């Protein structure tokens, strides 16, 4: 979702007024069974996907049955500002209220956490699918063509899910990297296609949090156009995930579990 804003452009010694297209950022208050869970800054849209993915990767609710998401309020712009998720009490997997504070920024997946240990995914990757190296560059070309909000604003991140054949199963955009991943995972859960996702592509830096979310979802290959952090690499190695970064200009670097990448091509590694 994008919005037009007035701005002043300075270019080649000239000044002029312009209408620029920006990515929308708005707060979303999320409650579970009427109890505050978090406030996340995100791009409006796909709230059901965001909530489903967030609760799944946060280890709060991992049942594949659909959640009932009630819209509590909207603002004057028509954006949803508050939702309440109805979860059967016996399916809540942990006491989230004691482990998370209330505010989470769109740029931060661990904001609001009080204990790092609470973030650790216990879901080691079991899927040993092999993916051809020749398909890696094309995944990003496909994802880029589907980034409608980015094409207009240049201000959103994207996460895409691909099957073993290289088909793009789903894509989600958001101003926050972590929100884009949560929305994508939520979309896969809600459509019953999570098990088909062999590779997740992301447009931003590969942080520990992104690796943790993909691990929690059981996706064996995670690839990015940007760099990984040391913790991202270590976590991928420990959890049997193939981590691919710097996927650009027909080259890429595999930092963990390269055995899933079939080198069927002359693509150079960085």
What are its keywords?
alpha/beta, 34% strand, 270 residues, 2 domains, Cytidine Deaminase, domain 2
Task: Record the SSE blueprint.
Layout: E1 2-11, E2 14-23, E3 26-32, E4 35-42, H1 47-57, E5 68-74, E6 80-86, E7 103-104, E8 131-132, H2 136-145, H3 148-153, E9 157-162, E10 168-174, H4 177-190, E11 199-202, H5 208-217, E12 221-224, H6 230-238, E13 242-248, E14 251-256, E15 261-262, E16 268-269
Parallel strand pairs: 3-6, 4-7, 8-15, 11-12, 12-13, 14-16
Antiparallel strand pairs: 1-2, 3-4, 5-6, 9-10, 9-11, 13-14
Describe the structure.
The chain is an alpha/beta fold and 270 residues long. It folds into two domains: 26-118, no CATH class; 131-269, Cytidine Deaminase, domain 2. Helices cover 22% and strands 34% of the residues. It is built from six helices and 16 strands. The chain has helices at residues 47-57, 136-145, 148-153, 177-190, 208-217, 230-238; strands at 2-11, 14-23, 26-32, 35-42, 68-74, 80-86, 103-104, 131-132, 157-162, 168-174, 199-202, 221-224, 242-248, 251-256, 261-262, 268-269. The strands form four sheets. Strands 10-9-11-12-13-14-16 form a seven-stranded mixed beta sheet. It has a five-stranded mixed beta sheet with strand order 5-6-3-4-7, covered by helices on one side. Helix 1 (47-57) crosses helix 4. It is flat and about 50 Å long. The two termini are 35 Å apart.
């Amino acid at each position: 979702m994008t919005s037009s804003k007035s701005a002043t452009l300075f270019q080649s010694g000239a000044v002029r007024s312009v209408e620029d297209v920006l990515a929308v950022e708005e707060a979303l208050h999320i409650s579970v069974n009427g109890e505050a869970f978090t406030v996340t800054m995100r791009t409006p849209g796909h709230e059901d996907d965001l909530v489903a993915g967030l609760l799944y990767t946060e280890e709060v609710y991992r049942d594949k049955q659909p959640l009932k998401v009630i819209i509590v309020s909207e603002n004057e712009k028509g954006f949803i500002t508050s939702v309440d998720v109805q979860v059967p009490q016996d399916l809540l997997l942990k006491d989230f209220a004691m482990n998370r504070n209330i505010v989470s920024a769109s740029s931060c997946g661990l904001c609001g956490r009080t204990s790092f240990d609470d973030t650790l995914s216990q879901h080691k990757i079991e899927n040993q699918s092999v993916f051809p190296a020749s398909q890696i560059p094309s995944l990003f070309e496909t994802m880029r063509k589907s980034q409608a909000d980015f094409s207009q604003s240049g201000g959103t991140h994207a996460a895409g899910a691909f099957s073993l054949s290289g088909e793009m199963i789903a894509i989600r955009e958001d101003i926050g990297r972590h929100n884009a991943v949560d929305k994508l995972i939520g979309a896969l859960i809600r459509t019953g296609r999570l098990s088909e996702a062999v590779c997740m592509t992301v447009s931003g830096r590969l942080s520990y949090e992104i690796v943790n979310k993909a691990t929690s979802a059981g996706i064996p290959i995670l690839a990015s156009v940007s760099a990984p952090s040391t913790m991202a690499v270590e976590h991928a190695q420990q959890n049997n995930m193939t981590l691919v970064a710097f996927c650009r200009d027909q080259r890429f670097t595999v930092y963990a579990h390269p055995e899933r990448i079939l080198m069927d091509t002359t693509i150079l590694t960085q």
